[in-house]
Amino acid sequence: MAQQTKDIVLQWFQxxxxxxxxxxxxxxxxxxxxxxxxxxxxxxxxxxxxxxxxKGEVDAFIQGDRVVYNDNGxxxxxxxxxxxxxxxxxxxxxxxxxxxxxxxxxxxxxxPMSATYGEVQVLNLYAKTTRRIYFSGLPANxxxxxxxxxxxxx
Length: 154
Description:
By secondary structure, the protein is of the alpha+beta class. It has two domains: 6-49, no CATH class; 54-150, Jelly Rolls (Sandwich). It is 21% helix and 35% strand. The chain is built from four helices and eight strands. The protein has helices spanning 6-12, 21-30, 45-50, 55-63, and strands spanning 65-69, 73-77, 81-89, 94-99, 108-113, 119-126, 131-136, 142-150. The chain has a four-stranded antiparallel sheet, covered by helices on one side. Strands 2-7-4-5 form a four-stranded antiparallel sheet, with no helix packed on it. A hairpin with an 8-residue loop joins strand 4 and strand 5. The longest helix has 10 residues, at 21-30. The chain is rod-shaped and about 80 Å long. The protein starts with 5 loop residues before the first helix and ends with a strand. The mean pLDDT is 87.
């Protein structure tokens, strides 16, 4: 009794062929029966489960990271991450700008933002190494929710 590959077994069952008793036995030895296959029998499953995201990572991806500011501030995009978008919830109506340096506006020029509504800003900033961005014009009790994800480059 020998296990065979799918390609070999398929050759035994072509039109006009008559598989032998031994070929049937080998075929049955080559497949998993209901309830017989285990986690380790599925190629790559163990590695995939070991590399899955944890609950905290999934929650951060879905819900975002919320940071409260009481004045101008900054945020560090971790190495290898893409900061896709932010939701700005200013403590009061304000003109907020985003830059790669303090009081800079090279990422987003002064934008009027209402304290009544959250403003979504699509940034799509990738950090090959840790990358700091600055926020200016933030009033007290302003919150920014950051939506980022890890990017595999290799």
